[in-house]
Design a protein that fits this description.
The chain is an alpha/beta fold and 250 residues long. Helices cover 36% and strands 18% of the residues. The chain has a seven-stranded mixed sheet. Helix 8 links the parallel strand 2 and strand 3. The longest helix has 13 residues. It is globular.
């Protein structure tokens, strides 16, 4: 196997997890330059983990919508699963614990990917005992075979990526989701004109999260690869249009 976290923690063979065979010379991914330059303060510094790893802080950042948005993801895991679930990128707060517990109730395990070792270390600590399998991988080039997962969840990652990385992450999430499964994306969206947060969040995102405005100018659906039939795409807005959920039937 070419994933150090899987090798260390083990894989449940009954889940049929597939990893791309790249030989024994697997090299851990480096942290992307855009992450080091733009988001070091949020994800790479130890003090940022200490500050943001609190459910109430995440809920505050999301204007009280953390539970609602988490529930929106869990709604897409409502039936027994025939394969494991993948979460692409760590999330501060209680999201991963709830997703892991929900996945286990459906008879499967959660696999969690992140490119930053500090985020994986933090996730291991807070998810101890949840039977989560961790992978040190880059969302733009996942080391899983196609169709490995029943559900793939991307929760507030895409707004933090430049355009090309965003497209690659979406394509990879769809690739590793099996036929009959779902890829679930939740992220920012341009609020309705009547939503006062539209005028507050614009300068905040421009200052702190410069790539997020891409999702204001173009709905997440417009970032999907071409050729996906419209009836396989389902979208829903939350909080006056500030957030969006897009589900692709694979």
């Amino acid at each position: 196997m070419n994933d150090e976290s899987v090798t260390a923690l083990g894989v449940d063979p009954c889940e049929g997890l597939g990893l791309v065979d790249t030989g024994t010379g697997w090299i851990p991914p480096s942290i992307p330059a855009y992450c080091e330059e733009t988001y070091w303060w949020a994800y790479l510094h130890p003090r940022s983990v200490w500050l943001f790893e609190r459910e109430w802080v995440v809920n505050l950042i999301l204007w009280g919508n953390m539970q609602r948005l988490t529930d929106a993801v869990l709604d897409e895991l409502a039936e027994p699963l025939s394969a494991p679930v993948l979460q692409v990128a760590c999330v501060y707060g209680d999201f991963s614990r709830r997703l892991a517990q929900h996945t286990r109730q459906l008879g499967r395990r959660l696999h969690l990917v992140d490119v930053a070792p500090i985020q994986l270390e933090n996730a291991r600590r807070k998810l101890a005992g949840q039977e989560v399998i961790f992978h040190h991988q880059d969302s733009t080039c996942l080391q899983f075979a196609g169709g490995t997962f029943e559900r793939t969840v991307v929760f507030f990652l895409l707004h933090e990526q430049p355009a090309e990385a965003r497209r690659e992450s979406i394509a990879e999430a769809l690739r590793v989701t099996r036929r009959g499964g779902k890829a679930v994306f939740v992220d920012y969206h341009q609020p309705h004109r009547t939503n006062p947060l539209r005028y507050f969040m614009h300068p905040v995102l421009k200052t702190l999260e410069p790539f997020a405005h891409d999702l204001w100018q173009r709905d997440l659906v417009q970032w999907l690869p071409p050729g996906i039939a419209p009836d396989r795409i389902h979208s829903q807005l939350y909080a006056g249009g500030l957030y969006q959920k897009v589900v692709v039937d694979c």
